[in-house]
Amino acid sequence: MPPEAGCETFVNRSLTGFTEAMRTGVSKRMTAPVRGLIAGLATLTALAAGSPARAQTLASLPSSGLAASITGSARPIAAWTEFCERYASECAVDRSEAASITLTPAIWQTINTVNRRVNKAIHAVTDQDHWGVADRWDLAEDGQGDCEDFQLRKRALLADAGLPRRALRMTVVIDEKGEGHAVLTIITDRGDLVLDNKTSVVLPWRQTGYTFIKRESQDAVAWVGLGVAISPVTTANR
User: Fold this and answer.
1) Across 114-232, where does the E strand assignment appear?
2) Taking the model in full, what pTM does it have?
3) Residue 209 has pLDDT above 90, yes or no
4) Per-residue b/e over 100-134, b at no fewer than 16 CB within 10 Å?
């Protein structure tokens, strides 16, 4: 069952066939599907690293594109601020890390694999139903979450796979329904790419059809604007 529109979409398929966590530091509270996802990603990364020729055949790189323009500082989403209080390491910015990812076939394959598998592994549920609040950002460690939780899980896995967290920025957009929505922007040498729970296709930001509002800064624990003044209060209110 492919992902469909909305943070409230329910995705019922889960991952099977993997049994080991990727490495230490992963929460013991994760459900079996999420643990399986991490193990599968570890296997994929090892294969790609050990066989460059094979990695070249896994995927074709996207065409070069543009980066989104930053217009200045922006006010963070309140739920993000609360998330950072609970998971400070997930929000920390290491300025010694690369600010952009140089795409290789192996990295491109890893990005696509994480996007597809997280979309299938997490059971989509609204924050109201899940936590009894309008908006809460979390890592979906219990295998449930809405749009921002999908993206935070993807970022954690990509960072575990060796991609610089500084180039993986949580981003707020207005979606096709005119509602607040969260995606993950990957800043690369081929432009800004978007991971989304609504689709398993990784798209250049200009091809998503969304209005881009703001995203996490690459230089501080803060947010920057992307050219639109009106900002949603939450990223998933139903």
Assistant:
1) 123-124, 144-145, 168-174, 180-188, 191-196, 199-204, 211-216, 223-225
2) 0.76
3) yes
4) bbebebbbbbbbbbbbbbbbbbbbbbbbbebeeee
Give me the helix-helix angle, 147-160 and 105-121, nearest 10°.
Answer: 140
Angle at 89 (CA atoms; ends 39, 134), nearest 5 degrees: 90
* Backbone angles phi and psi of 36, in degrees to 5: -65, -40
Cα–Cα nearest to 224, from 68, 83, 91, 102: 68
DSSP notation for 22-78: SSTTS-TT--HHHHHHHHHHHHHHHHHHH-HHHHHTT-PPPPP-PPPPP-EEEPPPH
Q: What is the pLDDT of residues 144-177, one digit of tens each?
A: 999 999 999 999 999 999 999 999 999 999 999 9
Query: Average pLDDT for residues 198-213, to the nearest whole number?
Result: 96
- Report the chain's terminal Cα–Cα distance, integer Å: 21
User: What DSSP line would sit under 181-212, residue for residue?
Assistant: EEEEEEEETTEEEEEETTEEEEEEGGGS-PEE
Q: Which fold has domain 72-225?
A: C8orf32 fold (3.10.620)
Phi and psi at 90, nearest 5°, equal: -75, -20
Q: Residue 197 has which token pair?
A: 């729970």
Report whether pLDDT(52) > 50. Answer: no
